[in-house]
Design a protein that fits this description.
This protein has four domains: about 100 residues, Tetratricopeptide repeat domain (Serine Threonine Protein Phosphatase 5, Tetratricopeptide repeat, Alpha Horseshoe); about 60 residues, no CATH class; about 70 residues, Serine Threonine Protein Phosphatase 5, Tetratricopeptide repeat; about 160 residues, Tetratricopeptide repeat domain (Serine Threonine Protein Phosphatase 5, Tetratricopeptide repeat). By secondary structure, the chain is mainly alpha-helical. It is globular.
Amino acid sequence: MRIGMRLVHTLCALALAAGPVDAAAKKTTSNAAAAKRSRAAQMRERGLAAVAAGREDEALEDFGLAVEADPNDQVAHHEIGKILFRRGQVPEAIGHFRSAVRLQPKDASAWYNLAFAQRTAQKFPDAAESYRRYAALSPDDPDAYYGLAESLRQSGQARGAVAAYRQYLEKEKRPTEQKWVQRANERIAELQPQADVEEQAAAALAVTAPPQSPTAPSTPPPTSPSTPTSPSSPTPTPTAPEAAASPARTIVHGTTEAKPAAPAAVDPATKIAEGDSALAAKDFRMALYAYQDAIMADPKNVAARVKAGQVYAKMGHDPEAIEQWNRAIALDPQNGDAQEALAAAFARRELRKPMPQGSTVVTVAPPSQSPAPATAPPPLAVATAPAPPAEEEAAARRHYSAGVALIHDRKYEAAVAELDKAIALRPAYANALIARGSARISLGRYPDAAQDYSAARAADPALAAPLFGLAEAYRQMGDVPRAIELYRAFAQSNAPDAQADLKAYAKQTADSLSLK
């Protein structure tokens, strides 16, 4: 009995001792969590201030630290997604947008950005669902219904797309958006035959399987394998085109039922021509829609994939562009346009990274012409060089692609040697000159790099990349006034492929240098 009582006293003492320890542990954990939240809030505010000042690199780092401190920081996830999307890193942006809507399901702007990114990545069913969620939160925004309509159309759901286009037409009152009103009407006319087919199929639901009575068993009887069933509809929302839910029924077409007329086939060549016209007018969204239509009609159409990739690149979405060019090359391994575009895209991706000496050199696609600064070095006489024979052209492209791959591997000396061969075969090869200039900047050969960029301008005056490359080279050589002039010329460029973040960097650098 005495031993038992002693054991009871001992256990009570341990319990009393454990109480303060547990409380202290909980307090320590709570303090640590509060410190992390405070750190996240501090970094988030710094990131927002950096965004407002146009310092996206700094903002991205700050938001990343905020998420590291508090993975549930919704604002930081959303802002990271926006920056990554502007930089063409669409899959990564989608991941952060998903985190943002998971953490705050009523953030309408996060749903819209997720939907737009998913549509850009050609994830059309996902985009349609996200547009529905956005429409539920912002029912008066016409853009919700246009985006939903386009996503449903690209998903092959003509009936839902037509309904969404009509909702868009009902909502759209902005005078500046009338071209989209016209486009919506054109889409309705184009999709109506297929929508009618889907409508007739819905109307032909079998009467052999009447709706169950309230007393019927909850589990329906098994359906014969030969009897097709209606596809399940996505979860409806108050603003979705097909908002009213109906009981599931079995579709059985009568044996004597006349088959509905098939929808008119889409002509890929016509769609490519539409895309070309839109591209010439610099209407990149319409061009992309047309090329995507051509791809849907003919997934093996190499020309449509190459052109879609070009538009994606002009819009700053290199990952999607690379995907299209890779598919084009898989279909046609000898396609020179896809090979060269792919090499240039990898060059852009690699050369966007900071170089060892602190320079950032990129390759951008051809922009509109801007006059060369008077202080630029004399260009090489290559602009009037005759076109090389086809064999030399192909060899030059191979050397160029090899050089870009070596730059990607940071083997700059070897890259210069390959690019030398490309330029020897094709002296007016502007992209190769730009790539060699970038490799030479990485090697610290700034005068040689400046000469390459100047030669690239002479070879193709429409290119904007040489402006940026010359600015970087002159800054490294200590010629600050010339660097400022060139940075500002690049920042003021209206070229569609002079991406906003790089222009902002050029402006910021010019302003910073002018204060020194």
